[in-house]
Amino acid sequence: MNDTSFDVPADKLARFTDCIAGDQVYDAIGGQWSTPARFESGGGGLVSTIDDYHTFTRMLLGKGAANDVRILGRKTVEYMTLNHLPGNKDLAAMGQPIFSETPYDGIGFGLGFSVVKEAVKEKTLSSAGEFAWGGAASTAFWVDPAEELTAMFFTQLLPSSTHPIRQQLRQLVYQALVA
What we know:
Elements: E1 19-21, E2 24-26, H1 50-61, E3 65-66, E4 69-70, H2 74-80, H3 91-94, E5 107-109, E6 114-116, H4 119-122, E7 131-134, E8 140-144, E9 149-153, E10 157-158, H5 165-175
Parallel strand pairs: 1-10
Antiparallel strand pairs: 1-2, 3-4, 5-6, 6-7, 7-8, 8-9
């Protein structure tokens, strides 16, 4: 993953896209990602390419290994993708959904990922055990071990709740499965 970082080097800025928030366009060049990050947060702020992100999702699907390279132990990934909410509750039982288009019913939370506990309660085509994460600019990815599927969605639209595009994409992907 050579193109993933908390900032974008000057020689790669031309490859970095603008971000749209309402009627305002945030220019990638000269923006916050063109200077070194003051804080490298494990929970947000990374920028990446589709190729690097695909390597990451394939590594997760491979329970820690991708392209014949092991990054994490199998048990580590399995543990990370379990629901760690108290009493095995879902997000709906833990608080009010106020900013996200992600459903809270039937969704637990692991160590860094939302985790589908009960697909029926989620009211979206999915599989129990599917895990996912979304980014600030309506980006998203999910990994479905049962279907041996990874999906990534890259937009540059703020805030992420502007349109229900993540759920619509999920419906289209799962409806396309035929075998």
